[in-house]
Amino acid sequence: MVRLTVLLTAFFLLSHTACAGAEPIGRLFFSPAERAKFDQMRNTNTLDYTQIGQTPSEQVTLNGIVRRSGGKTTAWVNQMPQRENEMQPVTVLKSTAKSPVVPLQLPSGKQIRLKPGQTFDTTKGQVREGYEDTAAPLPAEALK
User: Which residues pair with 56 in a beta bridge?
Assistant: First the structure.
């Protein structure tokens, strides 16, 4: 038992001295300027895709959803968080807590319902699953 205590003490002392000389890991996520810009957009409830280097696309992908028990739903549409009933390029509409489907309103006014992982192509008017390949079908498949 004494040997174990001595070994553990030695281990912790050696690991502590090794960590003390280590370089700091620095910034993990965003710079202070980027965080301030995101905070400002969140506080004003506006999302301008041009401010963050993105443009609205012809594809609407529902990446994920968080439903709070006592608050609004937040959905990630085209990798951008959007809160329920806030005017964005794509508006997340109110849905039931048990439903796996999220109703969305497109800028055109059209309403669609997507599950997380699905993509709606606005040019074709089709919903595609996340696991489906977007490549053109092979010639044998095209003849079917």
Answer: none
Residue 15 lies in a domain: no
Report if residue 139 sits inside a domain.
no
**DSSP state letter for 113:** E
3-state secondary structure 32-98: HHHHHHHHHHHHHCCCCCCCCCCCCCCEEEEEEEEECCCCCEEEEECCEEEEECCCCCCEECCCCCC
Could you tell me if 128 and 134 are in contact, meaning their C-beta atoms sit under 8 angstroms apart?
yes
What is the rounded distance in angstroms from the CA atom of residue 119 to the CA atom of residue 144? 24
pLDDT one-digit tens code per residue, 58-69: 888 888 888 887
pTM beyond 0.70: no
The C-alpha atoms of residue 82 and residue 64 are separated, in whole angstroms, by 10
- Could you tell me the residue range of the domain that residue 113 belongs to? 32-128
119 forms beta bridges with 61, 128
Kindly state the DSSP code that residue 24 receives in the 8-state scheme. P
- Report d(CA 136, CA 118) in Å as an integer: 18
